[in-house]
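B., you asked whether I could sanity-check this one before it goes into the benchmark set. Here's the sequence:
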Amino acid sequence: MVPLLLVLLLAVILFGAGFAVKILWWVALAVLVVWLLGFVMRSAGTGGGRGRWYRW
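And here's what the prediction gave me:
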């Protein structure tokens, strides 16, 4: 009975980790898109140079 419970616990942990990794890939993709849009949408700053689109 104990080995069966250990196998089931391992399956639940691996399924949860796989789901979390998939979510993290989508988050990373969204951050990449926002980062790339920052290069396209940044406005011209003072002195004729191109400024940053974010404040930090």
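One thing to flag: The mean pLDDT is 77. Otherwise nothing jumped out at me.
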